[in-house]
Amino acid sequence: MTVSLTLENVSAHYGSTQVLKDLTLAVAAGELVSLLGASGCGKTTTLRLVAGFLQPSSGTIRLGDRDLTRLPAHQRDIGLVFQNYALFPHLSVRDNVSFGLKQRGADAAERKKRADRMLERVGLSSFADRMPAALSGGQKQRVALARALVIEPPLLMFDEPLSNLDAKLRVDMRVEIRRLQRANGTTSLYVTHDQEEAFSISDRVAIMNAGRIMQLDTPEVLYQRPANSFVARFVGFENLIDMTVVERLGETVTARTKDGALLQLSQERLGAIPDRFILAARPDGLAVARDGNGIPVTLGIRTYLGRAYQYQCAAEGQSYLGNGSLSEPLDTGDRAVLSPVPEQCCILPADV
Amino acid sequence: MIMQTKLHPALIAIASLIFLILIAPLFIILGAAVSDTPFLTFPPQGFTLKWFSNIFQIEAFRTTAITSLQIAFLGTFLALLIGIPAAYALNRFKIRLPSWLSNVFVLPILVPEIVLGFSLMKNITIGLQLPVYTTLLLGHTLLALPYAVRVVGASLASFDFSIEEAAISLGCPPLKTFLTVVLPNISAGVVAAFILAFITSINDVSISLFLTGPGVSTLPIQILAHMEQFFDPTIASVSVLLMLLTVGVMAIVEATLGLTFLTK
Q1: Complex prediction ipTM
Q2: What are phi and psi of A88, to 5 degrees?
Q3: Which residues of B touch A79 (CB under 8 A)?
Q4: B84, B98, B91, B86: which is closest to B189 by C-alpha?
Q5: A258-302 confidence digits (pLDDT tens)
Q6: A24 close to B (CB below 8 A)
Q7: Which of B53, B137, B148, B225 could crosslink B79 through cysteines, CB 3.0-4.6 Å?
Q8: Which residues form the ABC transporter domain (chain A) (predicted)?
Q9: Which CATH number fits domain A237-349: 2.60.40.10, 2.30.30.140, 1.10.630.10, 2.40.50.140?
């Protein structure tokens, strides 16, 4: 049975500080949604509200047709995987996994059967009688995963589950998590501060900042079409250029930067351009050339990226990062122009 | 690389002297207890075990020993009953509780025991007219409480509360979680707190001095009373037994948890 998770206008406070502001979020049945953001953005608070460890000051939380908002945490039936594994140190691996079954009144034979089958699925059959202290980090997290999955919860939640593992293991484990989540079709909420992890594992990602969701979309859309300057900066659009339209000629728009440089942009290739906007570009979206149409700059430090050279560029009171071709290396102090590559650029609404 | 440094002779001398000062009284008591003289003396003259058998012929030693054990067990038990939940709350809700609150629970060992004993006598025994036994138990519970809160608290400080949340998320109600998940993981702290409080209670004089009364007394108070009437080696032999009890308990701690546990 797969069900959806919905949060409607949920607000939360720590004392007088508001940490979640009218958060609305819907996770479809069987979907894995990540909450991504820096620490303090409210992603862990959201997870703890759904788990029932915190109470919202307003709003409702629903799982399928069940209203969770005022339900005690132990009646919510949610599988949780923690950053520090949170295995029971005094119980064997098998007893850890069957703990949830015991709470549900399963008899000893049933518990053993289901725990052993789940341990087999995570590849830890031969470790069933060990104590958690005798396991490595990756093994511990697999036990934690088995413990959460064995109760067949309608919702799985992950709180930075891979942060304590080394880089190689992180990649293996996230594939493992995705495989088990897909196989069971369990609706999942995944909290992380790691963009690569969130993008690689999720159906959709919610990028959060200061208690709000800034954008909730598929990783592809977030990466290519951020909706605002916060998300753009988050996914690596390092150049955010404030611009004002000065002239429109058919689909060709002439716009001016703050320091007076003029750029000609095509609405056919960039989409509709409002009168005031932000031109967002990653370094490979700003081509550095000796001359041509574009923003005149003075080149700073040049770094070699393998596929291109990257330049720090300075114009009047503004600095940019642009890439230049390998065939024509330029030197620090040279005059050059930056021209946007339309396919690599985004038009964003101006910040208020 | 292991550095072999020679210890300075003065260091060895001072350390040996301190060790001697710490251990000598124990040997003096042991010597005095076996002296074949009708008065306390050291070095012992002759050898006899009759002072040990004399203890068991004096009714008062037997009854007070039983009272002492009862009070120590019950008082420590009550202190843990209050102290474990208090320590849990202090650690679990650290952010929300005022910082001075944890210090309230150590007041009984900060306030001079003689003051505590006197005020308990004045207000509880005389003021509320409670039975002597009840007041004595109350006093010893207070004496044991700081150990319960502090030692169990030290155990809880290193307890990862997300383990508790894991249990709750798996469907275990909060109280059951505390009993089946939290408690087994702080059991070493609970045992250590029990032993420390028990030893403190069974050796206490200052509080008991005020709170004992007609018909109810503890062993250390009986030793004092006996000494005032007969200055014979019986009290030395009682002390030896009391000492052996303490050493025995400590030996159990050392064997099971390691003594370093108590100093953590």
Answers
A1: 0.84
A2: -80, 115
A3: 169
A4: B84
A5: 888 899 999 988 889 999 999 999 999 999 998 888 899 999 999
A6: no
A7: B148
A8: 5-235
A9: 2.40.50.140
